[in-house]
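Why run this: before we spend reagent on co-expression, it is cheaper to look at a predicted model of the complex and decide which construct boundaries make sense. The entries below are exactly what would go into the expression plan.
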Amino acid sequence: MEISTRELWTMIHGMGFGALYLMACSGALVTICRRPRADVPSTTADNDGRFLQIYLSVMAALAWITVLTGTYLVYPWYRALPPKGTTNLAAYPQHLLLSSPITASWHLIGMEWKEHIAFVVPIAITMCAAVSIEYGRNLNRHPALRNAILAIVATSLVAAGVAGFFGAMLAKTAPIEGGATIHLSSETTP
Amino acid sequence: MIENSLTAVDSQPNGAGAAAVVAAGAGCFFFSVCAMLGDQSAFFHRAFTFSVAAGPLSGVSTTAIVAWLVLWAALRARWRKRDVALARTNALAFWLLLVGLLLTFPPIADLF
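The model came back. Tokens follow.
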């Protein structure tokens, strides 16, 4: 059993950071929804406020790590130019997809959409984290701000979902290959 | 009455939050506009290629992020100590976010 370094980084980018972000979104939505209103006495408001600040900050860090590893680590492997005369395009996913009209749309729509919509996510969630840090438990006194954060977290979930879906489909249609091989285990045949 | 005045004293102006929300919407919109320019104009394609390996996406993202942070700092400095009409700032932010999201979809971006 073995995996290449490029496959490993693609997995860390998508199935690690990206998937973790997607899962974290539901927790953020629930935590924001269940915050008590300002006029309702609550002994847990302080703890909830701190929890939300930390939770959204971790989500923002995850979102930035996901898009930065995607843009500067995985994407250059995806868009690498094949040397002239190359007939086997397996190591050049973008050119492999564009070489056939059946698969070209995976790049022209899928990858083009994914690489752009993904950047909405860290911008949106950084704003949510910053507002929760700025207002703390006072966020309850600004329901319009709280609702804005709720809607923007939901929007970031949709954006991350689109990016994640196309990331998974692209990895299936034209996987990023190459780099050093890491041997995970070796079976000896009897 | 007392509760109301205490609440008013306790409450933090909403301007800083509104600045963050509007800047985020504008940042997403600006990112989409930069991405469109990078895709459709040879000049911007070259200008946004900050990293040869990552191509124009490197410049598009860096430019949009810097613009977003500058706008956020400017709005924050202006609104931090006062209350603003959140219904209007939220509506503006969501329109910018919605248009920005639509423009990330290649068939829509290619219409312009």
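DSSP finds six helices and two strands in chain A. Chain A has one domain: 2-80+90-183. Bring this page to Monday's planning discussion.
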